[in-house]
Structure formats: C-alpha cells, structure tokens
Amino acid sequence: MKNKRKTFLALLLAAAVLTGALAGCAGTQDETQDETQDIQVSDSISGEKLTAGAAADNVFSLAVDYSRGLNPITTESSLNMIVNGLVYDLLFEVDDNYNVTSRVLEDWYYVEESNVWVLAVRPDIAMHDGSLLTAEDVVYSISRALQYSEYYRNRLGTVYSGGSGTTVYVQSEYPNTLLPYRLTVPLIKSGSILEDMPVGSGPYMYSASGETLEKFTEYDGAENLPVDTIYLRQYTDAENLISEYESSYVDLTVNDPTSIYNMGYGGMNEKRVITTTHMHYIGFNGYSTFLCYSQYRSALNWIIDRNTIADSVLGGAATASALPIHPNSSLFSTEINDSLAYSPSRCLTEMEKMGCRDLDADGQLEFAISGSKVEIEIDFIVCSDSTSKVVAARQIAEDMEAIGLTVNLRELSWNDFRNTLANPRDDDGKPTFDMYYAETALTPDWDIIPFIEEDGALNFGGWDMADLENAVYSYLAADDETRSEATAVMLQQLSSSGVILPVCFEKREVISHLGIINGMTPNLYNIFHDFGAWEIHLE
Fold first, then answer.
1. pLDDT digits (tens, 9 = 90+) for 109-153
2. Cβ-based neighbours of 36, under 8 Å, separated by 6 or more
3. 332-360: pLDDT as tens digits
4. Residue 377 included in any domain
5. Same domain, 353 and 475
6. Segments in 373-510 forming alpha helices (H)
7. CA of 344: how far to CAs of 237, 334, 337, 341, 365, in Å?
8. Cross-strand partners of 116
9. Domain range for 468
10. Taking the complete model, does pTM exceed 0.85, yes or no?
11. b/e sequence 245-258, b meaning 16+ C-beta within 10 Å
12. Could you tell me which residues are beta bridge partners of residue 132?
C-alpha cells in the first residue's frame, strides 16, 4: 500500500542520520555494456552505390530554435533539448538497453528504512564558470525542473531533495528502488534558472552570442572530443530544416517516423535507431457494459497482432510488446510476453469460457447477464490526428469483428478524443466509450501507477484495483534479489486484469549524412552520449 507523503523536513532529518551509513557504490547498479547501435544505411538508389555524403561547409552544425530559449529546463523546443545534451550533464543517463549510469556521481544507494536515495557528487566535476559542481547545484536543478517544467514534472513525479557539500538526498512519494531512472535532469548552476544559457558542466559551452558551442577544455576527456566548435543554425519550420539538412548545412537531426510530423528525409543517409518509452496501448472504460469485466478485457490480449502493427502498420518504427516494459530492458519477461501472443482462436475460447457466445445464431457474439441475453456493441475510439494509430486501431477492430464482436470505431479529433476520455460517463451515467487506442511516455522505471491509482493522470476507466496497485508498489520497492519475482507478479496481475493492453514501443531515428559520423551510441535522453568516442568526417 502506498506510504503517506513525507515532509521535506522529515527528509532532511532522515538524511542527516544516514550520512555515511550503508555504503554502496555506483558499480552495484546495472553495468551492462552498451550494445553497438544498429545502423540502417540506405546505400543505393536505383541500384547505384552511394559514396559518402559531402558536407556543404566543412563544419559540424546543428539546428536550434532561438525563439524558444536555450535553457535546458525551461525550453519547450525538442531541437534545443537535443543540442543541450552537449552543454549540460544529466544527473543520470539511461542507455538504449535501460541501464542507468552517471558521469557526475561517484556513488549512489538507497536506504530502505527511510525511502531515501543518497547521491555522492564527484568532487572534481568542473563547471563552465570555473567552479565545481556541488550538491546545491544538483538539488537546485531538481527543484527548478519540478517548478518550471511540465516535461520534467511528469517524468519525476513527486520527489523531495536536499543536501550539502557533495551529498544529495532524494526521496520519492512512495518507495522506489528504481528512482534514478527518472532522474535524467540537466544540471545547471544554482541560481541560474532565469538565464537563457545557464552555466553547465557538459563537454561544450555556449559562446557569448549563442551562435556556436565551444569545447570546454576542463571537461574529462576534452582532448578526445571530435570537434572544437559546433555551429548552430536557426530553425524556422519543418520544411526549412529538411532543406538545411539535405543541403548539408545541418549535419544531424532526429526524426519520429510514427508522428504526424514525420519528416521525409531522402538522399544519402544513415539512420541509427534508438528505443523509447513511448508506449501504444489499448485502454478501457470501467463503466462499459461489456468491458467492465476483467475476463473479457484480458481475452482481448490475444486479438492484438502486435508484430504486424509494429512491423507493417508502423513500418518497423516500433517494437512489439504485450508488456509495459520495453523488450530491451532486463526486466522484460519473454515468457509472459509470448504467452499473450496473437491468437484469435485463443481470444474466442477465453470469451466463451465466460459465457460470451453466439446465443441466437446470428453470427455475432452475445453475453448473458442475470439470465438475459445482451447484445455486444463495443464503442472503440482513437485520435484521428495520427494516421498510424488510426490504421492500427482499424486492424484491431477488424480482427475483433472477425471473431463475432460488433465494433464501432470512432476516429475523433484530438480535442474530442481527450474530452471523451476525461468524461467516461455522460449526464445519464452511460459510458461515453468502451475502449480506446492511445500512446503515452512511460517513465523508464516502468511505473504504471498513473493508470490505476484513483485520480491517476491516465486512469480514464475509473479503476480501483487494490491488488494490482499493491503489486505495482511492491515491484517498485523491491530490491535486487526480489525484483524479478515482484516484476513477474505485477505483470501477471496486469495481464489478468486487462486494465491496459500494451501494443508496442515507438522508435526514433537519428539521421546523419552517409559516412560523416562514426562511433555514435545515442539514447533517448542524450543523442550525444559518449561524444568523445565519435568520429566526424567533414572534408
């Protein structure tokens, strides 16, 4: 059961007692080596072999949007967030296999008795103004991220932080031994939140004009950085960015091939795929006449052809998963995932076990309530703004109809879709929908509490499931020895409850010109991860 929210004073008292206690080390965290990124290279056009793409100006350039600010916490520009990966260290990084690391910490460990994470800041991290990174800077960055950024508020949830010297204490609203996976916060100098280019500690620093990034010579491994200066070019609109990139004036960009803003980059490109926590899923209305029953919701697991949706509908731009955990994560259960694989016959069998049959021989399924036959009509909604989601929902609806379920798929505008989810019952108490197809960005600790907690941000079905909620809290609180078992229990309870049915996780593309960049190992939170290992060829 969820713990009561701790006060900030209680955090500091607990932290004071715990200083120096329960020694741990960063090495006890996941240290799985990054796997080499798959590189998808379009190496021929009309059968002709391509040579390396030429740089237009022999300098390395990136796109920014100055009108939306360069501050890594307050900017709302995804382009600027990408560039800031070169200027600001993250407190923690999560790689493409969902392992957590930190350049700025020499140690971090969890104290179960007080639900406190103790973070030991390295005493030698130089900042761009000549100072050293301190606990005060880290605490300031966390608190201002919560105060000024909806993006980071959604990622962090409710956390409290404090500290002094080189020791930081962080406490979450409920016990979470995976909290560092959420703390991918950019670090800025204390007191600088209102500055457009606050002081950071990354490998590059903004020039006074903001038109270039200059190598920070005090950065660890600065001598290995591939270029001394990175040029920034103003982005005005999508067409302008594509033109700048294809003319080789911008040398790298990131694309979301599943988005309505998918950019059609052609020519001589290399595409490095990165995984994301952006999950497509089916959700349900707890007030639905038919789908209020967990057995019927759970049975629909076997009607979702996840592999076809990921590979064909989304054009390979997603990874199929029946679980709310990415398959790259060590917490992913292949056994449970495979047990939920597409099987219309299994779906029909599971529904028949609960009395859902063609009771009047009309070719459509019905079910009985208190001895009375009830026709099944499922109101399925999807946002029409996303073509890929619409096509995926259509396929699922067709497969449902193929086994005898009557489905009415409604393709709604974003505002209508959002308003319908927010109001699951009309004024007469009737359900406004039965099921929906949606997408959300999970936190990389795979916390699904927002789907099931009362008043949870994603609890559109009005769910109140104490057993499942407790299973999720137990999973989040589990230590290294018990986490595997707690994860399996949570996943099994989720699949049997059918509160949500995961479909797939989206991918992103890091696009560069053919032969220009080698050694790239990007991840969702930092495209420029291990930038010192990159080789950039501009001549």
1. 999 999 999 999 999 999 999 999 999 999 999 999 999 999 999
2. 521
3. 999 999 999 999 999 999 999 988 988 88
4. yes
5. yes
6. 387-402, 414-422, 449-452, 466-477, 483-497
7. 45, 20, 16, 10, 14
8. 111, 171
9. 275-507
10. yes
11. bbebbbbbbbbbbb
12. 126
